[in-house]
Specification:
Distance between the termini: 21 Å
Largest sheet: none
Order of helices and strands: HHHHHH
Helix content: over 70%
Number of helices: 6
């Protein structure tokens, strides 16, 4: 697989991982209302960046397949990816630690916030790599 196709695929995988990371608490916590409280307790809910991750999948796939201008797709994915990561960091920093520890006895929830942020980092990295392969950077 050439890098011109692999780079946006990395961004797409980052988007899917971000969405999967957002779904993890629903499998770990017994009540879904507790997950809703967890996501709404920070400054901004990470579900909003989740919507942007869905859009970013479409943008990157369209750019990779040539259905839209690849340079526009690369730039848009970088912008949306940075936005996703910034909002995720803002949420992760502002969620009360006591709420996180009270959700479940699973130790995975202690690190979930940072896992969401790490998954989101792949999105702008894939977009930047795509832009580099298009000789835009």
């Amino acid at each position: 697989m050439d890098d011109l196709r692999l780079a946006p695929t990395v961004g797409i995988v980052g988007c899917v991982l971000y969405l999967l990371a957002l779904a993890v608490p629903y499998g770990l916590v017994e009540t879904t209302s507790a997950v809703g409280a967890y996501y709404s307790s920070g400054a901004l809910s990470p579900l909003l960046p989740g919507v942007f991750a869905l859009v970013c999948i479409i943008v990157l796939a369209a750019g990779r397949e040539g259905r839209s201008d690849p340079s526009v797709a690369a730039g848009a994915s970088i912008g949306m990816g940075v936005f996703i990561v910034a909002l995720s960091i803002l949420w992760a920093v502002t969620v009360p630690e006591s709420l996180v520890l009270g959700l479940t006895e699973s130790t995975l929830m202690e690190y979930h916030r940072w896992g969401v942020v790490l998954a989101g980092i792949l999105i702008p990295l894939g977009g930047t790599w795509f832009a580099r392969e298009l000789d835009l950077l």
